[in-house]
Write a structure and sequence with these properties.
This protein has nine helices and 14 strands. A five-stranded mixed barrel has the order 1-2-3-5-4. It is elongated. Strand 11 and strand 12 form a beta hairpin. The protein folds into three domains: 7-98, OB fold (Dihydrolipoamide Acetyltransferase, E2P) (Beta Barrel), CATH 2.40.50.140; 103-120 and 134-258, Succinyl-CoA synthetase domains (Rossmann fold, 3-Layer(aba) Sandwich); 322-363, no CATH class. It is 38% helix and 24% strand.
Length: 370
């Protein structure tokens, strides 16, 4: 009887073969989309060409809009064999339109080059001014985008000026116009900040903002630059070089303008802080006067106490004066220049000196016979 294996073992062997093959990892496949469905933010679809099809699955919601029925796309990922169901699928981690793969590679090469040169360094980025009175906008005058920026800015603060420098936003020569506009705004326009803006689009639509000439003009600008190119999920080279990236042009207007109500509240806060500081100063001054008064009273009490103690000591001193005692009839007896306080201290072989208030006499001590 032939040796058998289970279905699970067979499918497991097949999966191991796919997983072990390095050439099948992170590859790009081109084909036409069909049979697209979605569930729980996961996109299921198939790619086909004239001779074959392959089922695909994409776990990244950001790419769902690029997977369009009947459209040619390039997907990047790896084949995966599902053991339990015995099915092969292609797990997608990136989606590009056909012909856009080259643009993306050029984008990555330029990004790497400029990053190595330090054009993305945070140390070179300028802070946004605290008070912005005039905003320079570089975009097309024909689109609705400039009007959106004006509407948002003036709704928040009607006193802000908007200066437009109209340029192409895509197509031949767009990058030269954008770079020139940045240089002109930097040199001649009296603006506090510059916004480079355009709406969303494909990688090809945004290609002007992925050029070296625009990147270097942005880097060399002495005024703060805000990049507001595309949608929040779109990233361009100018985003990395600019001083600040806004997710959308309208968001840039929100960021750079402060509502008048906020300004009014700030003034009220400053007024409150000033009043409180003044009150604290006055209170501290009153406290100082109170402390000064208490200190003076304490010093006066201390001096009076010491004067009283001094008077007591002064009255007691005369009573301790030995001369006054001698004047009252007392005498001081010394022998060998030492005072005697007891008869037992007397050396009968040596004269003693009897000291009175007005003089002294020498005497020979005589030992009393018993």
């Amino acid at each position: 009887m032939l040796e058998t294996i289970t279905v699970s073992q067979l499918n497991g062997y097949i999966k191991k073969i796919f997983d072990a093959e390095e050439l099948l990892h992170n590859i790009s496949v081109v084909g036409e989309v069909f049979g697209k469905t979605s569930a729980r933010q996961i996109t299921y679809f198939s790619l086909k060409d004239e001779d074959a099809t392959i089922p695909c699955v994409c776990f990244y919601p950001a790419f769902a809009d690029k997977i369009i029925e009947g459209k040619q796309i390039v997907v990047t990922g790896s084949p995966n064999y599902y053991v339990k169901g015995g099915r092969l699928s292609f797990n997608v981690n990136r989606v590009e339109e056909v012909g856009k793969g080259k643009l993306f590679e050029e984008f990555l090469r330029l990004k790497e080059k400029l990053e190595k040169e330090g054009l993305f360094s945070a140390t070179h980025k300028l802070a946004m001014p605290k008070q912005i009175k005039r905003i320079g906008v570089i975009t097309s005058k024909d689109g609705a985008l400039i009007q959106d920026i004006k509407n948002v800015s003036w709704r928040r603060n009607p006193q802000v000026d908007i200066i437009l420098y109209s340029t192409k936003v895509q197509g031949k020569g767009a990058e030269q116009e954008i770079a020139h506009a940045i240089e002109q705004m930097d040199k001649y326009a009296k603006v506090d900040v510059i916004v480079v803006a355009r709406g969303g689009g494909s990688l090809e639509d945004l290609s002007a903002y992925n050029t070296e000439i625009v990147a270097r003009a942005t880097y060399n600008c002495s005024k703060p630059i805000v990049s507001a190119v595309g949608h929040e999920t779109d990233f361009t080279i100018i985003d990395f070089v600019s001083d600040l990236r806004a997710p959308t042009p309208s968001a840039a207007a929100e960021i750079l303008t402060e509502e008048l109500s906020e300004q009014s509240m700030n003034l009220k806060r400053l007024k409150t802080r000033f009043v409180n500081s003044a009150r604290n100063y006055i209170a501290n001054k009153d406290n100082f006067q109170y402390l000064k008064y208490n200190f003076i009273n304490a010093m006066n009490s201390y001096i009076n106490q010491k004067n009283y103690e001094f008077g007591l000591n002064e009255n007691a001193l005369p009573k301790l004066n030995p001369n006054l005692l001698l004047k009252k009839g007392y005498a001081k007896i010394e022998q060998k220049n030492k005072p005697l306080s007891s008869s037992k201290e007397v050396d009968f072989g040596v004269n003693i000196e009897v000291i009175f208030a007005d003089g002294s006499i020498k005497a020979k001590p005589i030992k009393e016979e018993k």
